[in-house]
Design brief:
The protein is mainly alpha-helical and 103 residues long. It has one domain. The chain is 57% helix and 0% strand. The longest helix is centred in the N-terminal third of the chain and has 17 residues. The termini are far apart.
Length: 103
């Protein structure tokens, strides 16, 4: 009996640990922050965002000009693409900032 209980607990633990941890509600990208300069190379967040946009987004499809869409149109696109590209919020923030500053 103890063996069955132990097997049941281990199976439940395994199933729980393999379950998806993401929520079903989409969270909007963080709001843009003002451009800040990196002291050593004088590289702005905008420049790093452009590089990230080109490197991450350009892998799968042609790059759109940020002015092709409005800010309200970009918001759900960025959320959807962040999930598809499996980018963290920290990786997505410079991309979002770059796109929003180009509008």
């Amino acid at each position: 009996m103890k063996l069955k209980y132990l097997a049941l607990c281990l199976t439940a633990g395994l199933i729980y640990s393999c379950a998806s941890k993401s929520s079903t509600a989409a969270t909007p990208p963080p709001p843009p922050t003002p451009n800040t300069a990196v002291v050593k190379d004088v590289v702005t967040d905008e420049a790093s965002g452009k590089v990230a946009y080109e490197n991450h987004c350009g892998k799968c499809h042609k790059l759109f000009d940020p002015k092709d869409f409005s800010k309200t149109e970009w918001a759900p696109i960025l959320v959807r693409m962040q999930k598809k590209a499996k980018l963290s919020d920290a990786e997505m923030a410079p991309i979002t900032n770059y796109i929003y500053t180009q509008l």
